[in-house]
Design brief:
mainly alpha
Amino acid sequence: MTAFIIGLLLFFSTHSSRIFAEDNRNRYIEHYGMMKWKLAYSIVSLIGFALIVWGYGQMRMDPVVLWVPPMWTHHLAALLTLPAFVLLAAAYVPGTLIKARIGHPMVAGVKLWALSHLIANGTLGDVLLFGSFLAWAIMDFVSSRKRDRAQGVVREGRIARDAVALIVGLVGWFVFVRYLHLSLIGVAPFA
């Protein structure tokens, strides 16, 4: 569990710099430059992510069960991740109405992904993993929206771009649920 917790701390320390330490982040970038910031950010994030994956895998081998969710919650989680994939796609398709309205669709998608997995999983490792991602995503979303308002950010989008995000999200969700989730995570979402 130690590696898992260290991984969460490393991963979220980098991903929370704009929430809790934006001045420090800006000073670092000013002193060392954006490329060195991105390099340091990426290295720490990747190490953290690797420790999360490894530590979570270790915790799954000897789980501490807090509750046993009913089977229907697994199906609900699989369905709730569908809009999470669409939100993720909308974050990368330029000019979507989704991004114009939500502002930060990737973070909104992470919130939905984490919530759906909290509903369907009841071990200590699940609560720590998905609960920490949900808490971070809520804080980051609020912080990002506040920063957008302070900077006067205005986004525009077109419905045709949403159609692209919808198709990409649906295809990505289908491929992941049908083919990748079992082989990568060890759980068949609709089994």
